[in-house]
Amino acid sequence: MAGATVTIVTGAAGEAGEASVTPLVPRPLSSQSRYRDIPELRRLEATGSPSHVVVHHIDEEAVGEARDYCDVHAHPFAELNLLLGDPGSLVFDIVLGDETITAVSPTTVWIPAGVPHSANLRSGHGTFVVVYLAEPQPDPGH
Ligand SMILES: [Zn+2]
């Protein structure tokens, strides 16, 4: 768009209508009430981004049974999950309404607004990304 002027805000919260760059910074799972810390997982959050963006890095091979860290919850906006990693390297149990599905990387999961859901690590390593499809940013709590 010729002549368009975009103000880019870096390192700080921007308004939803302006471009911004928001670093991902460490923030433990237990900073949110529906999460519990598990040793395999590093959580990063784009604190202040107009859209809620969280990254869960599973660096080490998760061992044993499913590592439950997220309670079932619902919210009035859609959510997109991305499971990133080599094919088959990361496995999550995803509750969607009355069903539980096994999600295997690389894949995406679309969660419509209002649908009860949770995502818990079953095995493997990789990266799990959570994005809320909402503007402006809803209250934290995920
Ligand atoms: Zn959610």
Write the layout of secondary structure elements.
Elements: E1 9-10, E2 20-21, E3 25-26, E4 41-45, E5 53-62, E6 78-84, E7 90-96, E8 99-104, E9 107-111, E10 117-133
Parallel strand pairs: 1-2
Antiparallel strand pairs: 3-4, 4-5, 5-10, 6-9, 6-10, 7-8, 7-10
Q: What's this model, at a glance?
A:
The chain is built from no helices and 10 strands. It is mainly β and 142 residues long.
Question: Could you please describe the fold and organization of this structure?
Answer:
The chain has a single domain (23-133), classed as Sandwich (Jelly Rolls). Helix content is 0%, strand content 44%. The chain contains no helices and 10 strands. The chain has strands spanning 9-10, 20-21, 25-26, 41-45, 53-62, 78-84, 90-96, 99-104, 107-111, 117-133. The strands form 2 sheets. Strands 3, 4, 5, 6, 7, 8, 9 and 10 form an 8-stranded antiparallel beta sheet that branches. A two-stranded parallel ribbon has the order 1-2. Strand 7 and strand 8 (99-104) form a beta hairpin. It is globular and about 55 Å long. The relative contact order is 0.24. The mean pLDDT is 86. The structure holds zinc ion. Zinc ion binds at residues 73, 75, 79, 117, 142.
